[in-house]
Design a protein that fits this description.
alpha/beta; two-stranded parallel ribbon; 15% strand; six-stranded parallel beta sheet; 8 helices; TIM Barrel; single chain; globular
Length: 252
């Protein structure tokens, strides 16, 4: 009997140490969407599926934060609320308006990263689209650079155009503060991060790329959400421990 008690104590201590270690890898999940479409493609999520995913988040009482609010918490070294989640979209496709309507219904904040030189082009959001949701919803915009070039391959002059000029143009057009940026295909290097900080962004988003698992608000990892996600896989991705089990890709 005494041996059994000792065994159970050892098991509980070991489990406690493991859970404590696991909790140190917790990250607020930042969901990454692209196109809201019924097309069969790697970056597409149907409108119906997106609605179900947002309903899942609502029913389970996740706290949906804006990306900027989360990044200010990181900057000020404050603890984010438990059970939090962040919603983002890359590229600024016209079909994101379907998501905007659903997000408004749930009163959820989100960030759409727009490519400056594609605003108003076919299949992309127009200035009027953006002004309307900035005025009537909690959806905000961030920069997805000026022309969606792969940043690690650029010289300093081109980097400043993609990072700094895109911010200035968006602020001039929409009269809002642009505080967040998403790196095309998640690529970045130390020079990119340096220019992003100099430009006055509060944070930057990648995909699942990074130098290490250490949390860096200028290289925030995000979780790709797809049409294939089930309630179980969505729950797993929302756990905040997704990257503990996922290998990080090099940043460039």
């Amino acid at each position: 009997m005494r041996k059994v008690k000792i065994f159970l104590i050892v098991v509980f201590i070991t489990l406690g140490i493991f859970l404590l270690k696991l909790s140190s890898f917790y990250e607020v999940p930042i969901l990454m969407y692209h196109s809201i479409s019924n097309k069969k493609c790697n970056i597409c999520v149907s409108e119906d599926k997106f609605l179900k995913q947002m309903s899942f988040i609502k029913k389970r009482r996740y706290k949906v934060l804006s990306l900027a609010d989360y990044c200010y918490l990181l900057k000020e070294k404050k603890r984010p609320p438990s059970h939090a989640v962040i919603i983002t979209f890359d590229d600024g496709y016209k079909d994101n308006l379907k998501a905007v309507r659903i997000l408004k219904e749930f009163n959820f904040p989100a960030t759409i990263f727009v490519i400056v030189n594609r605003i108003g082009k076919d299949n992309y959001l127009s200035c009027e689209d953006i002004r309307n949701f900035l005025k009537n919803t909690k959806v905000r915009i961030g920069s997805h650079t000026f022309s969606h070039k792969y940043l690690p391959s650029l010289n300093k002059k081109d980097l400043e155009e993609e990072i700094k000029l895109s911010k200035k143009i968006l602020e001039d057009i929409f009269k809002v503060k642009i505080e967040t940026i998403s790196y095309p295909v998640g690529g970045f290097n130390k020079e990119v991060l340096k220019i992003v900080k100099e430009a006055g962004y509060i944070c930057g988003c990648t995909t699942n790329r990074g130098f290490s698992k250490k949390l860096n608000r200028f290289a925030l990892r995000r979780i790709k959400i797809t049409q294939k996600d089930t309630p179980f896989t969505l729950w797993a991705k929302l756990s905040g421990l997704y990257y503990f089990f996922k290998k990080i890709k090099p940043p460039y």
